[in-house]
Design brief:
Elements (H helix, E strand, L loop, with lengths): L4 H4 L12 H12 L4 E6 L6 H12 L2 E5 L6 H10 L10 E5 L7 H10 L9 E7 L7 H5 L2 E4 L6 H15 L15 H7 L4 H14 L1
Parallel strand pairs: 1-4, 1-5, 2-3, 3-4
């Protein structure tokens, strides 16, 4: 393995995600006919919210402005938005991705409330917010976003097959050891990780290192 499995196997297009059939359909439709808008991806950790936002950005060939978790402050918001008034590199759109938006500062949330108003929306810009839940977000903020709910429901079969495909691609049996001897229980790994595919990939990485 030359890189961590979570990075190496991050999907780069919407169609390649495991499960998430409804979410893929919504965002593929949007990617085919994009427009300036705000989106909120809600769901538990490890279900692909940020990865999906990055894949959407790639499909749009958009210029990405990423505000990492815990850094969504008023100053960072203002700096990112300032850049959106210039023509984007490559594609037609800017994408502002704010991770864990439920942890943003009050000043940042108020700034976004103003920006997401139709009269103040920056040109050629798509906002994507991710969060684990919406309890700390104002109803006015939620009303300005298209909310897409993510979950790990129904991931068992597809997730297990995905982990198996990663194992088959990465495992190299030492001399004298049969390939099947080291094969882990992929369904159990996924279950023990609470169907969190990111955690399951990290667990599988440990299995590969110890095999």
């Amino acid at each position: 393995m030359k890189s961590g499995l979570t990075d190496k196997y991050r999907p780069h297009c919407i169609a390649d995600f495991v499960g998430l059939e409804k979410q893929k359909k919504i965002l593929s439709t949007f990617a085919a006919n994009p427009f300036q808008s705000a989106w909120l991806f809600v769901g538990p950790p490890g279900v692909g919210k940020t990865a999906m936002a990055l894949a959407l950005c790639e499909e749009l060939s958009a210029e990405l402005h990423h505000i990492p978790s815990q850094k969504c402050t008023l100053a960072n918001v203002e700096e990112m938005v300032r850049k959106c008034y210039y023509l984007p590199f490559g594609g037609q759109f800017h994408v502002i991705l704010a991770d864990e938006a439920d942890q943003m500062s009050n000043g940042a949330q108020l700034a976004f409330l103003s920006l997401l108003d139709a009269t103040a929306f920056p040109p050629n810009t798509i906002f994507i917010f991710t969060c684990n839940d919406t309890e700390r977000l104002e109803k006015r903020f939620l009303s300005r976003c298209r909310v897409v709910e993510f979950s790990n429901y129904g991931l068992n079969g597809a997730g297990s097959r995905f982990l198996e495909s990663v194992w088959d691609a990465e495992y190299q049996a030492p001399e004298g050891k049969l390939f099947e001897d080291a094969r882990p229980d992929f369904a159990r790994i996924l279950k023990n990780c609470g169907n969190n595919l990111r955690d399951a990939l990290m667990h599988l990485e440990m299995e590969l290192m110890s095999a």
